[in-house]
Amino acid sequence: MTLPASLDEAVAALTAMPAAVPVAGGTDLMAAVNAGLLRPAALVGLGRINEIRGWQYQDGHALLGAGLTHARMGRPDFAALIPALAAAARAAGPPQIRNAGTLGGNIATAAPTGDALPVLAALEAVLVIVGPGGQREIPVSHLLAGREMLRPGELIGFVRVPLLHAPQVFLKATGRTGPGRAVASVGLVLDPARRGVRCAIGAVAPMPLRPLEAEQWVASLIDWDGGRSLAPEALEAFGEYVAAACVPDQGEPVAPGVLHLRRTVAVLARRALGRALTS
Amino acid sequence: MSGQDAATATTVTTTMTALTATPEPEGPQVPRGIGASVEATDTRAKTEGTFPYAADLWAEGLLWAAVLRSPHAHARIVSIDTTAAAEMPGVRAVVTHADVPGATTHGRRIADRPVFAHDVVRHHGEPIAAVAADHPDTARLAAAAIAVEYELLDPVTDPEQSFGAAALHPDGNLIRHIPLRYGDPEATGEVVVEGLYRIGRQDPAPIGAEAGLAVPRPDGGVDLYTASTDPHTDRDLAAACFGLEPDRVRVVVTGVPGATADREDAAFQLPLGLLALRTGCPVKLAATREESFLGHTHRHPTLLRYRHHADAEGRLVKVEAQILMDAGAYADASAESLAAAVAFACGPYVVPHAFVEGWVVRTNNPPSGHVRGEGAMQVCAAYEGQMDKLAAALGIDGAELRMRNVLATGDLLPTGQTVTCPAPVAELLRSVRDFELPALPKDAPEDEWLLPGGPEGAGEPGAVRRGVGYGVGMVHMLGAEGTDEVSTATVKVVGGAATVICAAVDTGQGFGTLARQIVQEVLGVDEVAVAPVDTDQPPAGPAAHGRHTWVSGGAVERAAKMVRTQLLQPMAHKLGMSTELLQIQDGRITSYDGAFSMTVSEAMAGKELWATAQCRPHPTEPLDADGQGDAFVGLAFCAIRAVVDVDIELGSVRVVELAVAQDVGRILNPRQLQARIEAGVTQGVGAALTENLRTVAGLVRHPDLTGYALPTALDAPTVRIVKLVEERDVVAPFGAKAASAVPVVTTPAAIASAVRAATGRPVNRLPIRPSAAVGAPNS
């Protein structure tokens, strides 16, 4: 186990030990190690790299350090910047997990139920990857979809998200009142400058799904210069549209489980848009 | 049952105010004796994390064990090759079925379970071999290196298919069938309602997973340090498997980290002992959470089909029921669970005619066994569902319909047994029904309203509907159907301090505290220690069905009274009076006329007094071919009113409040009693809403605490203990009744009833899935 103090040192350590695995909060990785699923030859701990534990501003965007914990993202100052990501961070588990688990770790684990992921997808976040060959950028959706992969020696350094200065919502449905794994989740952001609604559904597929047609359709109905309100019927239709796009039939007759999931997604999308438009 | 006259039972009732304000004669005095909130001695150590459990134990020269478990639900074992594992550096021993020196099968009730599977594996996680090595990782790697060739067989996972399937076990697939026939089969009612109910597989999910340490002895025997809840039975089965005399095996009970079912899992206790005997070294194993889920027994998944007949006023005429329980591959406690399910199939209601068929069958699903409230919990969810259906069919309020049918002392169970113990069911139900309902959230600020789905969740007030429902449940106490429920205890007093030696395991039910209270009460000594439990002490039996409060508490009381007699007799003789004229109170011995008085510690000075006593409740008898017989020693009852909020669009349920009224006989320790009821209720909330160990084709899915969702602090509702009815059961020592199981039994039924009220949906499956709680928008 090595504990580099900077991203450069971390990259150097990973390059020197190709079999080493980077670890930040360890909430997913160490659980896999303890369960005997993973037996890393060496670990590179990212916990002492101060440059990735905060965020900075960059022409209308925030450059978020991959080492930001869920607990940090859940605080009010962060919530004022990126409300949906803050809400997802607060919903991401019990305090012990939120204190340790990081934004970068949530992306690297890429679990279908990762709470930050639909929000990042809706924000069209871009990952700043650091590696032996320097920095490169890839959209978060490319990494989650497996279109681009991390190469040996590479780390997620930062996550660039736009500062939209408009309402954002994250909602998830779980099996219990206490913290739980998402059955379905939605991240929804308004982008008044581009007159857009962007929405991603989490937990229903291996990666967050973007219902692009539904987004465009509903954005065209919104009076962006006025009260930004929509009729209840339009909200209802948006929910149905999103659900139909994200939860396919999988054959006839449609299984009861699929029907319930689709209904859940429709309700979440409808409520998310409704809350975004009234807040 | 013995002839107890209910009229002689003293009736005292108490409410929560009496619980919180325990009267103390002197201000700063530490609570002592029966009825006081005496604190457990290990509370502080457990809270601070310094209390040693089996997983914390250590011995010089320790080896680590790992168990190879079957990855298949049903397969024939073609070959087992341990060569590669045995040759790994650091591996000290590998054992399989061929290395079991004694009996190759075992079981707490019926010896039908192999120590190691050798010809066939019958469930996912069945042990096949075990390894001892000098490092836990080496042991696990070596276990994984054992090459087992399987020929896969089709698993039988639907209990309904088990009847027609090829035998899964030499003993056949049907473990027990009880056809209960009571009354007139031709009787019919004016109103008939039918229902089909399914109850899922609840896991006891002890917060401390199984662990143990086996230490070989110089005499060729072995000591097993585990969190056993039935140490003498475990010792006997271990000795039989090891081919040793029972005296050569000692089970030493360590702290029990949670037990609402039988502990420990024999699938690793036996390999541990075998490995220690084989290597001559101490061997330790601490199970992972996954092994824990795979290894121990679960609540029986149950399918229930009911038909209730009632007259126009809602009085029950006849109940017909079919109950099918899934035992998994081995019998374990299944026969007893079925007896409870069949006997209590109609609930605490008067039913003139009952026809109940119960079966418990083998499958290749995970093993089922004793989990508190077994049998009774599954039927409670079903008969209370039927009561709701009847109420709806007749247009009568649910609580009122139940009230018209409640059982009372003197009534008959459908097993033909007369209820001779207190049965204050009407009073319990009335208490919860008349208790003030919690305020509606619209009266509170919105940010203080915890919506279904949790804080900052997806819940929306406009979609939330509130429901109120009722559950009334019953359990039996102590072993049933002729089980010999004897317990033995020794009380020793040296100087002013007493010690209780009794092999009754404190599983968290508080027996250790109760034993101290009893001795304080009888002998007037403050300082009472409870000795650690091992099997060199006389047997006290399993910690189940509230039996230790009854039989072991009774044995402690008798032993303490015998010591009291030894102490007082010489004094009484000297004073020329009988011992009855001397009394011990507040640490002083005084004569009836006050002329003689001395402190207990003065009287005890220089003395060492011992006494051993046994307690054995009156005998019971097995259910006969018609399901008839006096099978139970005693019964306990509970009524719960559940208030739930349901987001009817998402189907998410939050239990707002559970109002509990319980028949407790007598309050022995108010704070402990409250904790037991709250714990039981919370386990019931889990069974009602989230807890179900899922399987696909017999394979356990997500055996971890993320996939298996236990209730969290946010899921646990406000528990209002509305009334504790203290109507003493005269045949029980102290008149007290078991308190832990009946809230578990009743809570799921009450929550299901409330969700029905909120959503208008049938809610006939536990746990209640969100898809079953999505309601009509205008309901």
From TrEMBL, chain A:
One Pfam family cited in the UniProt record for this chain: FAD_binding_5
Highest taxon listed in the record's lineage: Bacteria
Report keywords, A-Z: FAD, Flavoprotein, Oxidoreductase
**Family annotation (Gene3D superfamilies):** 3.30.465.10, CO dehydrogenase flavoprotein, C-terminal domain, Uridine Diphospho-n-acetylenolpyruvylglucosamine Reductase, domain 2
Matches recorded under InterPro entries: CO_DH_flav_C_dom_sf, Diverse_Substr_Oxidored, FAD-bd_PCMH, FAD-bd_PCMH-like_sf, FAD-bd_PCMH_sub1, FAD-bd_PCMH_sub2, Mopterin_DH_FAD-bd
What region holds the FAD-binding PCMH-type domain?
Answer: 1-166
PANTHER family, per this entry?
XANTHINE DEHYDROGENASE SUBUNIT C-RELATED
Supply the name of the protein. Oxidoreductase
Please tell me the species this chain comes from: Streptomyces virginiae
